[in-house]
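During the reporting period the student researcher (J.K.) took over the structure-prediction task from the postdoctoral fellow and processed the backlog of single-chain submissions. One of the processed entries is reproduced below for the supervisory committee.
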Amino acid sequence: MRFLSNTLSQYSTHSVEFSLKIVAKASKLLPTMLISGLLGNSSHFEALDYVAALFLCVGTALFSCGGSRAPNATNTSQVVLGMVALGLSCIFDGLVPNLQQKIMRSGVTSAELMARTNAIGLLTGLAGVLLSGDMMSVVEYAGHEPQLLWLIPAIGVSLAGSVLCYTELVASAGSVASVAVATLRKTASLLLSQRD
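J.K. obtained the following structure tokens:
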């Protein structure tokens, strides 16, 4: 679901404005809260909780919309397809941390969950390259760029650490708190990336 969410989100930018993608991705806290209550990961939230989450999402979305661009879509059916892709992406974004929390409550540790997530990611990535027929292009490119031999493992270790921290946060604080922290992280990243 994590990989489908990212793929659908990226695909949507062919049909809708980038700013709309930002708004949708920033609003994943709301479906996470709804799904959390439905799956029994937390009690149902009060209206004030949803209003606070909405303000957090809207604030992040508005702050990040500065780099938007015009849509590539030329007809209504493309826009509808992009909106459906974004909607599914948000649902997956809400499901993933809730399912992770449920899995860890059954006795799976965050390290085991991280290892499983990364193994699925590795297999999916390899399968994607093999099925696309681009394996030789990848090998050729790697031959011209030898620094990939240390860059790719370094990125892998960094991402593994990131996934471990996130799954540990899901295990200790819950799915909703984890997504709220992730949303605040995006806001902090945007603030830090601003130039004078």
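The committee noted the following: Residues 2-193 form one domain.
J.K. will present the remaining backlog at the next meeting.
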